[in-house]
Design brief:
Elements lengths: L5 H8 L1 H4 L2 H7 L6 E5 L5 H8 L3 E6 L2 H10 L4 E4 L11 E7 L8 H11 E12 L5 H15 L12 H10 L2 E14 L6 H9 L1 H4 L7 H11 L4 E2 L2 E15 L3 H10 L1
Parallel strand pairs: 1-2, 1-4, 2-3, 4-5
Antiparallel strand pairs: 5-8, 6-8, 7-8
The structure holds benzoic acid.
């Protein structure tokens, strides 16, 4: 289980919300809209969306993240929730999500929640790790852990191919209108220590089988295996993003009723 530390997440990995401008632009929040931020983390993107005049609710599975978001943005609403099972009587004009959906290994359950939360015609806009995301970095760590424990841990995250994810959305009544899979090489802060910090923040579950007193050695070994990602004095993470927009289909009866009223 990943344990989130909001302070180090913001201090060392602020690029996660810093590089998300494109996906907020794709969301294009409008004044007065009701928008759900699924995986709101420390709340910075919810605040950016609110600054454009929308009414935002942020949900996150981590109580520590929700506490940090509430402390930073007390005027916004944040709730602890598991996206796979969360239900709301409210409906939203849009559901937004950044850097979250690759942590949920039951994508259908998450999409089901999202589809239920949207009003017909509402939009879903998300960015997260796509096929091949951080493969170099995570393969190096898994190999180093395998050398130390005798068992290479399996890949952990959900990094779908674009077509596979689009099919899942379509199966839940969401019509895909934009989709893009792109490489986004990302410099890690912290110089030489940047990669070990990234592993410590995001790969706690991969490191779990390694005895505590061996972890630093394993991190150093993983850094040696991933050395081709050390470029001109900094670690460059091999991020691949899947950015997607889909619209909840309007049921035929609603379309017919709207036609009859004209
Ligand atoms: C990501 O944002 O793509 C990511 C971050 C940490 C681990 C895996 C993926």
């Amino acid at each position: 289980m990943t344990h989130w530390d909001p302070a180090s997440y913001d201090a060392r990995h602020g690029f996660i919300h810093g590089l998300a401008g494109g996906v907020v632009d794709l969301l294009d929040p409008q004044p007065g809209e009701r928008i759900l931020d699924a995986g709101s983390g420390t709340g910075h993107l919810a605040a950016q969306i609110a600054a454009r005049g929308a009414e935002v609710v942020g949900i996150d599975a981590s109580a520590a993240m929700v506490e940090a978001a509430r402390a930073r943005y007390p005027e916004l609403r944040f709730e602890v929730a598991d996206l796979r099972s969360w239900r709301t009587p409210e409906t939203y004009d849009a559901v937004f999500s950044n850097a979250t959906l690759h942590w949920i290994l039951q994508p259908s359950a998450a999409i089901d929640t999202i589809a239920r939360a949207l009003r017909p015609g509402g939009r879903f806009v998300a960015e997260f790790g796509g096929h091949g995301n951080v493969e170099r970095l995570t393969t190096a760590l898994r190999e180093a852990v395998g050398e130390a424990t005798g068992r290479v841990p399996p890949p952990f995250w959900y990094f779908p191919a674009l077509g596979a994810y689009a099919l899942l959305l379509e199966a839940h009544g969401l019509a895909v209108t934009d989709a893009r899979l792109f490489e986004r090489p990302t410099p890690l802060a912290g110089g030489e220590a940047g990669l070990a910090n990234w592993y410590r923040e995001f790969c706690t579950h991969v490191l779990e089988p390694v005895p505590a007193d061996e972890r630093e050695r394993v991190l150093a070994r993983a850094a040696a295996l991933a050395r081709d990602r050390w470029v001109e004095g900094q670690w460059i993470a091999d991020y691949v993003r899947l950015r997607i927009r889909a619209v909840k289909r309007v049921p035929p009866v609603a379309v017919a009723a709207a036609g009859a009223r004209r």
